[in-house]
Each structure stands twice: as C-alpha cells, then as structure tokens.
Amino acid sequence: MTHSIRPQPGIEDIVLYKGGESRLDGHDEVLKLSSNENPFGPPETAKTALIATASTLHRYPSSDHAGLRGAIAEVHGLDAARVICGAGSDEILTFLCQAYAGPGLEVIYTEHGFSMYRILALGAGATPVVVPERDRVVDVDAILEAVTNATRLVFLTNPGNPTGTMISADDLTRLAESLPDHVLLVLDGAYVEFAEGYDGGASIVDASETVVMTRTFSKLYGLGGLRVGWGYGPAHVIDTLNRLRGPFNLGVTQLATAEAAIRDRAFAEHYRSENARLRTWLAKALVALGVPSDPSHANYILARFHDAEQANACEASLRTKGILVRKVAGYGLPNCLRITIGTEADCARVRNAIQQFLEGA
Ligand SMILES: *Cc1c(COP(=O)(O)O)cnc(C)c1O
C-alpha cells in the first residue's frame, strides 16, 4: 500500500548513532575500552539500593525527583530547585533541542564534538553548524564567529570527547559573556568529575541567565546501563525543560540507585584518583612507544598514530587480542584511537598489545 506519511524535515538526514562495540567473535572475555565505562562497575551501595527497590515496583515513581535532586544539590552545592533529572544526560540534551531549536534555527557544536548534537539538532528540524577546533582544542573565537541571528544553542563538551582536552574557566567565562543573549550555552559535563578542580561550569551557570550544564551518572558512577543524567540551569530554562519532561521519565530503580551512588563519596574519590594515576601511566607508556596523546582530563586518552592506516591496523590487531578500543574517524580524527582507562591490569594489557602491534608481532 502506498502512503504519503513522512517524518518532519531533518529526521531522514539523521545517521544512526553507533555506540562502542561490546562483542568480539571468538573471544569469551572481551576487554571493552571503547565506551568510557567505569572498569570497577557501579558502587556496592548503589547495587544494594537497586535491589531494595524490587519490592516497590508496583508504585509509580516520584515525579518531582525531590530525593535525587536534593542529593545532587547537597553534594555539589547547588540550588535543588534548578536541577532537572533525565534518562541519561542525553534526555536533557534532547529537551534542550526540542525547546530551543527548530526549523530555520541553528545549533552550533565543535568539529570533534559529541555525535549526538547533530542527531538532536536534526531531530528538532534545526540546522547543525560545525565549528573548527584548533589542534583538538575548542576554539572560543571560532564559535563566536559562527554565531548568527538564527543561532539558538551552542553545545560544548568540556573536557572534550573524544579529545580529552579542556578549555580553561577563563575561556568558558569569556565565551559565556561574549555570546549574544539569544543564544543558550550548553556545557556538557559528562567527564567533569575526572578533571581536577573544575566545577563543570556551575559558577558560570549561577552568574548567567543563558548557560546550562549537563552531567551524568554513566561515567564516573559506573551506571551507564541505568540511564540517569541531570541538568542545572537558570530557573526559566529548568521550568521550560520540565514542561517537556514526562512526569515519570525516571523509574523508582533509577532514582534510588543514582541517589545512593552520588552519596557514596568514597567510591567517587577512589575511581577518580585511580583513573588519574592510570591515565598518566598509560599516556607515558604509549609515548615511550612513539604514540603521543594530548594531556587528558577524562577517563580515556586519544592515542595519535602516524596516519589513518596505522590507526586502523592497530585497532584491528587489538581486536584479534580481544581488546576493543574506539575508532574516531567519524569525529574527524582518522589517525587516532580513543582508549578508555581501565584497571591497572587492563592498562598494562592494552599497552603490551599496542607494543606487539608496533613491533609487527
Ligand atoms: C557519555 C556522554 C554523555 C552522557 O550520556 P548519558 O546519556 O548520560 O549516558 C553526554 N555527552 C558526552 C560527550 C558523552 O560522552
């Protein structure tokens, strides 16, 4: 039967998101270093809280998320009334595009930025605008030059994914202060917890009516499978996003587990410090093999090879050894591989496998 049903303009231009792979034929135990997951798994306290929700699953969850928002506000010193929780920070980013972008309007993100920004902009019918970075670092002036009367959103990941690089608080402040007041700046802070001494832009949010930040439980807290993220912004933005949010967008299990996780400061501190230590170790070990990377502020490093051919061959060689890392040609970095920082043993294994590849073994 023929029909004339068509999706809204832009949706057919979306290329499906491709996540990090988790399976390899012929390998029972795959070392997955392709999705920036916490190698230690979720905190025990969170698992206990999760199991306890089993007996309450017949009840609808809270629709205002007061418990989780309160815990987030307490831990980070924020105003709980201006926190919004979603099914991953992806959902908060989706609300932002739904609310502020649309046909004839532009959404800016940077050259090596997260591929979801393009998908969400197109999904809202808006025009994605890609701005160059400078040597894998966000360029504030290039963003400012790309702004037009039609710009509504600027998405900026800091620390960047897959680059791992950061721009300073001063640069962020300059960007926030220089953008015209019809542009909402979105600071995607998926990896903020791994960066030393950075509040994710919370103080910039507090000083402005046009800056929002997003955060996630998927990376530091080891809860990517649970789907919980949050946003923090000015009251008018949070009010707008809450109008779009389904009242029961998070289940009782998500709410209770995330709340337990964020209150477990010892877990967060342990992983943060282990990650920093092993990140330094792996970066140095790879430099010694002739594979450099920029100083990373996240839970991965972006290893640079001679060219795309060598990067692809290395990725293929690691596969044969049961190790998955992330190819990032789709992010404009064909000569690089993004390697998640695993446990000490994981780091040693990937380093040795890269050495064997380079030695042609
Ligand atoms: C992982 C990640 C997210 C968070 O995704 P969730 O939906 O919270 O799991 C957001 N932005 C970037 C850049 C990421 O890498």
Report on this structure.
38% of the residues lie in helices and 15% in strands. The chain has 361 residues and is α/β, with parallel strands linked by helices. It has two domains: 18-41 and 266-358, Aspartate Aminotransferase, domain 1 (Alpha-Beta Complex), CATH 3.90.1150.10; 44-264, Aspartate Aminotransferase, domain 2 (3-Layer(aba) Sandwich), CATH 3.40.640. The strands form two sheets. Strands 2-8-7-6-5-3-4 form a seven-stranded mixed β-sheet, with helices on both faces. Strands 1-10-11-9 form a four-stranded mixed β-sheet, with helices on one face. Strand 5, helix 6 and strand 6 (184-188) form a beta-alpha-beta unit. Helix 1 (44-52) runs antiparallel to helix 9 (252-263), helix 10 (265-288) packs parallel to helix 12 and helix 11 (308-320) crosses helix 12. The longest helix is centred in the last third of the chain and has 24 residues, at 265-288. The N and C termini lie far apart (58 Å). The structure holds pyridoxal-5'-phosphate. Pyridoxal-5'-phosphate is lined by residues 88-90, 114, 157, 161, 188, 190, 216, 218-219, 224, 229.
- Beta percentage is 5-15%
**What compounds are bound to the protein?**
pyridoxal-5'-phosphate
User: What is the CATH class of the largest domain?
Assistant: Alpha Beta
The CATH level-2 architecture of the largest domain is identified as: 3-Layer(aba) Sandwich
Mean pLDDT: 96
Task: Give the count of helical stretches.
Answer: 12
Task: Name the helix and strand elements from N-terminus to C-terminus, one letter apiece.
Answer: EHHEHEHEHEHEHEEHHHEHEEH
CATH structural fold name of the largest domain = Aspartate Aminotransferase, domain 2
Largest sheet: 7 strands, mixed
Output the strand order for the largest sheet.
Answer: 2-8-7-6-5-3-4
Name given to the CATH homologous superfamily of the largest domain: Type I PLP-dependent aspartate aminotransferase-like (Major domain)
Taken together, the total number of domains comes to 2
Helix/strand structural class: alpha/beta
Which blocks of ≥5 consecutive residues have pLDDT under 50? none
Using the CA coordinates, give the radius of gyration.
21 Å
From the spread of the alpha carbons, the general shape counts as: globular
Portion in helices: 25-40%
CA distance, first residue to last residue: 58 Å
Number of strands: 11
